[in-house]
Write a structure and sequence with these properties.
Blueprint: H1 4-10, E1 15-19, H2 45-50, H3 52-70, H4 76-86, E2 90-95, H5 101-105, E3 110-112, E4 115-122, E5 128-130, H6 131-141, H7 145-151, E6 183-187, H8 196-207, E7 211-215, H9 222-233, E8 238-241, E9 254-256, H10 260-286
Parallel strand pairs: 1-2, 1-7, 2-3, 7-8, 8-9
Antiparallel strand pairs: 4-5, 4-6
Helix pairs in contact: 4-10
């Protein structure tokens, strides 16, 4: 398998990378729009904060789903990007995912655009706690719930750590242990804005790069699409690797309709050698 136009575009260039749910499918986390994805209607922030029934449903499903996400391991695509960062070719990584798989793979310069699943925040006093600490409290408030959910059979988990669980009506929600306020995962919900500091950090990554590589995102949601528009407006070449069309295909210099794992592994094999060859050539010319 090869993609000469992709390799040619990225050869010898420092790249910023934007990833979406499609990069994590090979780790067992289905994306929102793929053929194997569970039916998904992500909860909005207004539903979560205004309706106790929605909040109860969310925490019941998340109580099951976060554990499955926590157990996932990076795939070849995540490992390839970490390798390219170590080689000095990836200057920064912007991910729309909350699964932390890039960090697990060894990537160090990462903007978790939509937050992560491992932290919980109080909307009243801003007290934070780990998701594992909250799990202990939720299990105490709902003894046996997890075992009952698992006994039903296989569990489908969405990219936001939401699991498909049928019976959530009697689930007991836990409030903030510091003030009794409403707890929420430290994840950007539909209807919420990404914190401005994260957006600016992501723009700065693109400013510092020669190219933008998009991997595993249809760019349907504006929070990711804006970065492709930003790059294109500044004349930064854009490469997209994604199964199926994306919202920004017309802005791409190169578009590869393929899975992330094989294409990113290809880049990890090809680009560092090419970059070293270019550096050696430049050094020889100076001497």
């Amino acid at each position: 398998m090869d993609a000469p136009e992709l390799v040619a575009l990225l050869r010898g260039r420092r790249m910023a990378v934007l990833t979406g749910a499609g990069i994590s499918t090979d780790s067992g986390i289905p994306d929102y729009r793929g053929p194997d994805s569970p039916p998904s209607n992500p909860m909005t922030i207004r539903q979560f904060t205004s309706d106790p029934a929605y909040r109860r449903r969310y925490w019941a499903r998340n109580h099951v789903g976060w554990r499955h996400m926590d157990e996932r391991i990076p795939n070849a695509g995540h490992r390839a990007l970490a390798s390219l960062e170590r080689a000095g070719l990836v200057t920064g990584l912007i991910t729309q995912n909350v699964d932390l798989l890039h960090t697990k793979a060894g990537s160090r310069v990462v903007v978790n655009l939509h937050g992560t699943f491992v932290r919980v925040v109080c909307l009243n006093c801003e007290h934070t706690m780990s998701r594992s600490a909250l799990a202990v409290l939720l299990e105490a408030a709902n003894p046996g719930f997890l075992d009952r959910a698992r006994s039903v059979g296989s569990i489908a988990v969405a990219p936001d750590a939401d699991a498909v669980v049928a019976d959530t009506d009697h689930f007991h929600v836990v409030d903030c242990p510091a003030c009794g306020g409403m707890l929420k995962p430290d994840i950007v919900y539909f209807g919420e804005s990404v914190p401005a500091t994260r957006v600016q950090e992501a723009y700065s990554m693109i400013d510092d790069a020669d190219t933008l590589l998009v991997a595993g995102s249809s760019l349907t949601v504006y929070s990711g699409y804006r970065f492709v528009r930003y790059a294109a407006a500044r004349g930064v070449p854009v490469a997209i690797v994604n199964r199926g069309p994306t919202r920004a295909d017309d802005l791409a210099t190169v578009k590869i309709d393929n899975g992330c794992s094989p294409m990113l592994a290809l880049l990890a094999d090809e680009l560092p050698g090419l970059a070293v060859a270019r550096l050696t050539s430049n050094q020889s010319k100076r001497h």
